[in-house]
């Protein structure tokens, strides 16, 4: 009876999926520039806006232990002096036309984003500044000295705050000698030693035309998109692309870090190396995690820890797919007196999930949400720009978005159970507790 | 604003969004046909309706994507709370997910999730808002569920007793363990003596500990009524069809008499006020505020008409971009600070605002030195106003952000709902760019001289305490 009912829902979902994908299909145009950059473009004239991002494999995973921080500071300093323009001139040239220069930085990727009005004068000035920042960074020494002091001040402040302390300890324990363990911002001691030659050398080897992925969306023709991407690509260093990083190794013993802090709440993180971009287990693990702790109010962790017992404001789990195995992480904060109770409950919920898998009903609800929510993933230019960047940077198939719902639809309860059992090992988890309860105040134990 | 829960996919980014505090220019402007005449897209199509029971409906058609944003705004926030019951507006927001007769606890979220939707709610000083983002055909579900909980909410002691613990955890996370949040709470508490903006939206811990489910029930009965609500819908919809749907779902809900709202005007401040907060941290921090007016409902003098806009431009001159005066001079040139900003909100329901300056001193510099440097920058504006380049830059930024906003349906819905709920019309935004463009250097100078004066100043500073790893939390223990 239940099975039949579920099948009916699945059939309806499939129909609605096909009609949706017909409506929502994005026409992505893709090519390579003469200088070797990959370009992803969506033409859309609804708004007089142009959005561009330039992405490089220049994240903090490219740092070394000794000079941790070079990657992030290189990216940051590129915006603070280029082609003879001071930081003040760069800021003002953009502000004069209402253009916004932004970007993202993580372990894998450094990206620069530009948003400007598409009108001719604005577009021209914005693109001139954007190209200078990408192609002609000056790495002015006086600015570097100033910014290093600011960064060190921020790092020292972070080292006193429980949330930052827990994040940092978690990544370090999870990744050990792999560069994913490095703090994206560096360490006070390493930042202090960084000089402008370090930045110039990092720039020359990491901001290359052959490594660049350029994404564009908005009010421009394909000819204009070619022109813009050629210009960006041609002005970048034409050095060879870099070697791959060594692989993440999986923990073979559990690690527990208890860190004392006077905060009123314990900050608890636990996890294990998770998945890569394009990972064959991505869809079963993603859908499974929605049920475990990714689906906001309808997840098991929220139901058990918050809704039934009121132990937390926030409890969640997520997979962060990266070039190599990004973290699978569970996190929560709870007042320290009940820290042990909450952690025990989270462990029980996780173990039960891995041992018992998910129900057909839970799977159906997860698919309904993920598939039904697809139109909201691509309802703005800025969201589409981010997808173009990720598809390009991680070499995902060009039809990634078109086939997304079909991939979700294919996931079964058996696949979820099998994938979690094979990939996620609670017996070898990393656990970090900052400002823990009574048992955690004893000396750190393994 | 306090959100009902955090959507954490990637913790660092989400937290940044939630902890960002100061907006340089309040994004109230939406559209201006005059300025857009040279651009290729049409003016936003906003339509406004009022049902017989007093419920307002604002619809903006946006056909770029097959999606819809639905928000229900109640004119009930911390502003409407009384002493001893601080935090009750936010507690009720949490309870709104705890079920009705027809839709039991937890089912609201499950039904929206099954429709592919995202949903959440937030509470501010001025309002409480509940929202859903859905594929466009699912709007009827959102209306059905919202209409149900507008009139049929069940607040049981059992559900309340669990949820109040969640709210107390939220307070610990948001304020008690965050030094700058503590500074901000103390700052508000002394900047305002009479006005309810003195109380934190999350509520004082003691009030949360002594609150009961009956307080939440009373709040619901008092303020949750169609004549105290505005629905905002932005998306790929037909406005007339949305009106029909609203009448079907909300039309039969009875209006009731709302309590009289008194102005609670803040008395004039006659002399500076200071407070120091001690908390575990490394860097000190300073927050300075000056009482300032908001946009007037009916300006009685020419000054009242332009002053709020001049204050917005002043905030832009001081910290509108990275090369604006505070960052350029204090961070980049004098290197007395590692972070500085200025902010001012020109519109709110309480009709009381503060012009704020804040910053973190550089290593080896004190908050007193940074205070001096911040006020010295204010003095320069008082002496010579703003440059033509600065004024033009602020105008360019406002004009561009008008266009950029159109890329986010949610952002547009937020603006319509905020303006309507704070007691201005959303139409206020039509003249926004013109009002900003009209501001002169002399007017910027004038508002700096009039409002940014010591007798009108409140200063809160963080005195960072070295962390003793064995220390217990400060303050009296919480009883549970």
- Mean pLDDT score of chain B, rounded? 90
- Spans of chain A of at least 5 consecutive residues whose pLDDT stays below 50 are 1-23, 440-446
Question: How would you spell out the order of helices and strands of chain A?
Answer: HEEEHEEHEEHHHHHEHEEHHEEHHHHHHE
Second CATH tier, the architecture of the largest domain in chain A: 2-Layer Sandwich
Strand order of the largest sheet of chain B: 1-5-6-4-7-3-2
SSE-based structural type of chain B: alpha+beta
What is the alpha-carbon Rg of chain A in Å? 24 Å
- The CATH homology group name of the largest domain in chain A: Metalloenzyme, LuxS/M16 peptidase-like
| Major beta sheet, strand line-up of chain A | 1-2-8-3-7-6
Number of helices of chain B: 17
Oligomer, anyone?
A: heterodimer
Helix percentage range of chain A: 40-55%
Distance between the termini of chain A: 49 Å
The proportion of strand residues of chain B reads 15-25%
Please estimate the helix content of chain B: 40-55%
Q: Looking at CATH, which topology of the largest domain in chain A would you report?
A: Cytochrome Bc1 Complex, Chain A, domain 1
Written as H for each helix and E for each strand, in order along the chain, the element string of chain B is EHHEEEHHEEHHHHHEHEEHHEEHHHHHE
Kindly report how far apart the N and C termini of chain B lie: 27 Å
Q: In terms of structural class, how would the helical and strand content of chain A be classed?
A: alpha+beta
- What is the CA-based Rg of chain B, rounded? 23 Å
Please summarize the sheet with the most strands of chain B: 7 strands, mixed
Describe this structure in a few short sentences:
The complex is a heterodimer of chains A (446) and B (480). Chain A has 446 residues and is α+β, with helices and mostly antiparallel strands.
List the helices and strands and how they pair.
The complex is a heterodimer of chains A (446) and B (480).
Chain A: H1 2-24, E1 29-32, E2 38-43, E3 49-56, H2 70-78, E4 81-82, E5 85-86, H3 87-96, E6 100-105, E7 110-117, H4 120-135, H5 141-158, H6 162-175, H7 188-193, H8 196-206, E8 213-218, H9 222-234, E9 255-259, E10 265-273, H10 282-294, H11 300-307, E11 315-319, E12 327-335, H12 339-356, H13 360-372, H14 374-377, H15 381-393, H16 404-410, H17 413-423, E13 430-434
Parallel strand pairs in A: 2-8, 9-13
Antiparallel strand pairs in A: 1-2, 3-7, 3-8, 4-5, 6-7, 10-12, 10-13, 11-12
Helix pairs in contact in A: 1-13, 2-8, 10-13, 10-17, 11-12
Chain B: E1 2-3, H1 11-19, H2 33-36, E2 45-50, E3 56-61, E4 67-74, H3 88-95, H4 107-114, E5 118-123, E6 128-135, H5 139-151, H6 157-176, H7 179-191, H8 205-210, H9 213-223, E7 229-235, H10 239-250, E8 273-280, E9 285-292, H11 302-319, H12 325-333, E10 337-344, E11 353-361, H13 367-384, H14 388-404, H15 409-421, H16 432-437, H17 441-451, E12 457-465
Parallel strand pairs in B: 3-7, 8-12
Antiparallel strand pairs in B: 1-5, 2-3, 4-6, 4-7, 5-6, 9-11, 9-12, 10-11
Helix pairs in contact in B: 3-6, 3-9, 5-10, 11-17, 13-17
